[in-house]
User: Which sequence fits this backbone?
């Protein structure tokens, strides 16, 4: 096999549609634009959402709602997930990310009190529920709030 013998596989390359090259080509005369009308004129493309000149639906419907740009989004963890750490371990946000319990870009962590914790742990997070603090301290551990 030589380089001059290489050919694309049959059917892998389509021929270019040559419009406006005479009636015999099948794409002559109106050049596939039909007869008259907006689409036949130069610059006749219509923007997305165009509805033939009537008021578009995006402008007919009222704007609603508000998105607070200053809202704080917390990654939520339950106490039952913290039970995997060894006793007397300091569980901080960095350790939670390394263990794969907290994923994504969300930097803030909140610990909720669902489930039980059997081991004394020193847990550092940005926020705790009241029941989580109670259960951590009942197990002999400590809940520390990390500043934002």
Assistant:
């Amino acid at each position: 096999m030589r380089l001059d013998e290489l050919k694309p596989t049959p059917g892998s390359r389509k021929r270019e549609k040559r419009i406006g090259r005479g009636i015999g080509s099948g794409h002559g005369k109106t050049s596939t634009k039909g007869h008259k009308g907006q689409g036949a004129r130069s610059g006749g493309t219509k923007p997305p959402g165009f509805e033939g000149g009537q008021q578009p639906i995006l402008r007919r419907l009222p704007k609603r709602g508000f998105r607070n740009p200053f809202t704080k989004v917390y990654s939520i963890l339950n106490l039952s997930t913290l039970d995997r750490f060894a006793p007397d371990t300091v569980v901080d946000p960095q350790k939670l990310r390394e263990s794969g319990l907290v994923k994504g870009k969300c930097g803030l962590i909140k610990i909720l009190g669902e489930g039980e914790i059997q081991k004394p742990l020193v847990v550092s997070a940005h926020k705790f529920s009241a029941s989580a603090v109670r259960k951590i301290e009942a197990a002999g551990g400590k809940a520390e709030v990390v500043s934002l």
